[in-house]
Amino acid sequence: MTLQRTIKLFKLPDEPKTKGFRKIQSKDMNAAHKLLDDYLKKFKLCPVFTKEEFRHWFTPREGIIDLPSSVMQHPVHKTVRAAYSFYNVSTKTPWLELMNDALISARNIQMDVFNALDLMDNKKFLVPLKFGTGDGDLQYYLYNWKCPPMNPEDVALILM
């Protein structure tokens, strides 16, 4: 594929299209915590965040947690910056629209790469939004836990 065709294929709109798409604010914390907590309960393996832990991990901090959909970023290399999608919840906005807006937001703050695991409901957007397949599988070893084998879509545990 030529560079011009690649650029055309992966082109994103200039701005997110979802009305009200913005960074989480202090006033949103209790409702967002409940929303994530309720969502995570549907999985066989998931974390349980206290309100304090939720506030710590999801409060926007410039250069660390910067995007509306709880995407965390860090410099991977001096010239490459990557955004990581950890926990996303979509109730009214379709997954494709929500995550397309996250891609636009990441691009707008100069991210070069957007990473997402094939856990939870992420398979609903990975292929349609043209995510490339990674080079390996994420493996967990949980000491002293009896845990049956699970499919990625049954897991909502992301170790940071």
TrEMBL record:
Q: Which SUPFAM superfamilies match?
A: Acyl-CoA N-acyltransferases (Nat)
Q: Which InterPro entries match?
A: Acyl_CoA_acyltransferase (IPR016181), NMT (IPR000903), NMT_C (IPR022677), NMT_CS (IPR022678)
Q: Which Enzyme Commission number(s) are listed?
A: 2.3.1.97
Domain spans labelled Glycylpeptide N-tetradecanoyltransferase C-terminal: 1-65, 67-151
Molecular-function annotations in GO: glycylpeptide N-tetradecanoyltransferase activity
Q: Does the keyword Acyltransferase apply?
A: yes
Key word DNA-binding present in the record?
no
Q: Which UniProt keywords apply?
A: Acyltransferase, Transferase
- Cellular component GO terms, alphabetically? cytoplasm
The chemistry this enzyme catalyses reads: N-terminal glycyl-[protein] + tetradecanoyl-CoA = N-tetradecanoylglycyl-[protein] + CoA + H(+)
Per its database record, what is this protein's job?
Answer: Adds a myristoyl group to the N-terminal glycine residue of certain cellular proteins.
Q: What's this protein's family per the entry?
A: Belongs to the NMT family.
What is the designated name of this protein? Glycylpeptide N-tetradecanoyltransferase
